[in-house]
Amino acid sequence: MKCEKCGFEQEVGKFCGQCGAPIPKEETNKEQFSRREEVPGQNTGETVHTEHLATTDHTYSNQTQPSVGEQTNTDAMEKVKHTSKDYWAFFKEYLKHPSRIFTNREESFKNGLISMAIVAFMMAVSSAMLYGSFMDMAYYYNGPSGLSIFGYTLVFIAVSMVIILFILFLVNQLFGTAYSFKEMTSVYGAHLVPVIIVIAAAFLLILLKSFTIGGYLLLISFGLVVTTFPIYLISSLLTRQSKNLDPLYGYLTYLVLMGVAFLIFVVVLMDSTFGRMLNQFY
């Protein structure tokens, strides 16, 4: 630094050490800038460049990293895709060979529940569509809505399958193989796969205005779910590994328990919401 008034040179300071005149600010800034350049790691160009890279990386990371909500949606979609693929493989396998479930029952609990849910939902939708067609053809009608029919049918089918599943499990524990409740769910759900085909055919026929054939197929599918397949299952399970009593008595016990359970179930329904719905038909 050099004083413009007397020419005295010095390294630092804002005033001349000889005459006391103020040293111009530009000279002071130049001196400080040159001193920073001499210190390792304090190069201004490097500092600016580093800060720029940090800012760029931060911006890029904000753009590429998904938010918490997006990540949750992505994980949910992946789970849905995985479950769909798993159930489709389950569906194809047991549509061809339903009896194979007796050896693979431990791994199919979730798919068995999905089969039961599909059957209940499709039967409820088909019943509501069939009921809606009846309402369209009726000249004068004052009854429950189609949505009510869907809800009542869904509850009725779902509760019926739970009752059947529980009695299958109970009788099998007493007289046959000691399957767990999850294993019994897998076995029952796998044998519902052919029923899904029948219900799908009924749904398409009702959709195409073929109400008579569609209605008959819907009744057939209900009979398969509630009577035919459960009776086949209890007979097969009891003869595979029977306990002290003969399988015939286990089979008769199943029929008695089913009759009593459904009688109680129907009485409860007639005395509750389902009964009020029946009264609306008048």
UniProtKB/TrEMBL annotation:
The chain crosses the membrane at residues 113-134, 149-175, 187-207, 213-239, 251-270. Residues 26-75 are annotated as: Disordered. The keyword Amino-acid biosynthesis does not apply. Coiled coil: none annotated. Keywords: Membrane, Transmembrane, Transmembrane helix. Residues 26-39 have a biased composition (Basic and acidic residues). Residues 56-75 have a biased composition (Polar residues). This is Yip1 family protein.
